[in-house]
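Reviewer 2 asked us to include a model.

Predict the structure of this chain.
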Amino acid sequence: MKKIIIIPAYNEEENVERTVNAIQKSAQGFDYVIINDCSIDNTRKICEEKGFNIVNLPINLGIGGAVQTGYKYAYENGYDVAVQVDGDGQHDPEFLNTMADYLIEHQVDMVIGSRFIEKKGFQSSITRRMGIQFFSKLIKVLTGKKITDPTSGLRMIGRNVMEIFSEDYPRDYPEPESIVAVLRKNMKIEEIPVVMLERQGGVSSISPKKSIYYMIKVTLAILIERIRN
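Predicted model (structure tokens):
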């Protein structure tokens, strides 16, 4: 069973070495690949000096393009399991083997690490929690499946979903939309509890000014995805 961690990185010079060290310590049995999304800081320099496994994108593709590149890499290199771990230090690699065991033992297509099942660790801001609850209810209405943490980037998938995502993946703010895409194909998604940390550095792509655009864009994308043939 070949397993790989996809680390999308844009201007993560403060965190990328810490993230790789945590993976090597806590996620034995996993390979990793850093997808450097045309960072303008020292992310690439640090990775190359440390000998990290890195793919350097020639232009900035955004989070969706970076993660899709990771899925393409994983699929084309014969991996059976792929998991996204953000490069900002929020995702704890300690939970990855538990997620892999659950994916395999329960024969599901995607496992999401949810911070809201046991409500431990960093729970995000009140404003973001309201948005997360909205998307959770919207997905429930449209698919019948309750997902407590639909914006979680800590998602593990099997090879069947990997193939789909390597060919078609949302460009930006992809998590809720891609969940609906998987459910629309009658695939199985389950959540397990995890503990997430506060961002260790860098800047979120969803600023207060972009929050309204984010809500409208993702809502429309989910609705469109639900009715696609």
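The chain is about 45% helix and 15% strand. Residues 121 and 130 are 18 Å apart (CA to CA). We have added this to the supplementary material.
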